[in-house]
Write a structure and sequence with these properties.
The chain has helices spanning about 40-45, 70-75, 90-100, 115-120, 120-125, 135-150, 165-180, 195-200, 215-220, 225-230; strands at about 1-10, 15-25, 30-35, 50-60, 60-65, 75-80, 155-160, 185-190, 200-205, 210-215. It is α/β, with parallel strands linked by helices.
């Protein structure tokens, strides 16, 4: 579904990504791991058309490089940024309704507001509360749910469990499995190795702007050299 080849990305004159490659199949959960600053977030921003980049980003057989971010979103690629991008003066439910604007009209949507409330009852409790007063964890849930309301075929999620309580982290992990069961692919940038190992079919490890490991969770567990050099603090 998503195939990235020889992806380079730049911030001004700074060359951040150096020939990144990765693939995500339909309904697959793939994690992109690595220490802070190695280019994980830049990778998904480049795929989403938000930074200067070159190479190849094929999504459902169509080249994405050169398109604007909103055009890429309309192709069915969802993006949940790390900064919890909500509309703070709108209510929780209004934020979710806005997510519907990206949904594709030519098929039945996989997600409804009722689904979001079932998966995250706390959002239903606060449906008429302005999003700006939610806790960080609640805002993260809202951002994720609003993106799903656009009915993407693949969703890229940047550090979704950062700063969340353990109980909320468990809910988020359950949601990822539910997303994949409905045929939606996930590319996950995650700092917590245990979560990535538990829910991913495959993993990539990034170091200094390029991929240094590609394999299954079992293969990464066995590869102490990669973990020690590129993941452990």
């Amino acid at each position: 579904m998503l195939e990235v080849k020889d992806l380079h990305a730049y911030y001004g004159k700074s060359h951040i990504l150096h020939g990144v490659h990765l693939q995500v199949a339909k309904g697959e959960i793939v994690s992109l791991l690595g220490r802070n600053g190695v280019g994980r977030s830049t990778t998904i921003k480049a795929i989403m058309g938000q930074v200067d980049s070159e190479g190849s980003v094929m999504f459902k057989g169509e080249q994405m490089l050169g398109l604007k971010a909103y055009q890429i979103a309309h192709k069915g690629l969802g993006y949940v940024p790390e900064n919890r991008d909500i509309f703070p003066t709108l209510t929780v439910e209004q934020n979710l309704i806005l997510g519907l604007k990206g949904a594709k009209p030519d098929k039945s949507a996989r997600w409804s507001i009722a689904d979001m409330y079932r998966l995250f009852p706390r959002l239903q409790e606060r449906a008429r509360v302005e999003a700006g007063v939610l806790s960080g964890g609640e805002q993260q849930m809202l951002t994720l749910c609003r993106t799903l309301m656009g009915d993407p075929d693949l969703i890229m999620i940047d550090e979704p469990t950062e700063g969340l309580a353990p109980k909320i982290v468990e809910l988020v992990a359950e949601l990822f499995n539910e997303i994949a069961k409905r045929g939606v692919s996930i590319l996950l940038v995650e700092q917590k190795l245990a979560i990535a190992l538990n829910i991913s079919q495959r993993l990539y490890v990034m170091g200094h702007g390029h991929i240094v490991f590609e394999g299954t969770p079992a293969e990464l567990r066995e590869n102490s050299t990669i973990r020690k050099e590129w993941l452990e603090v």
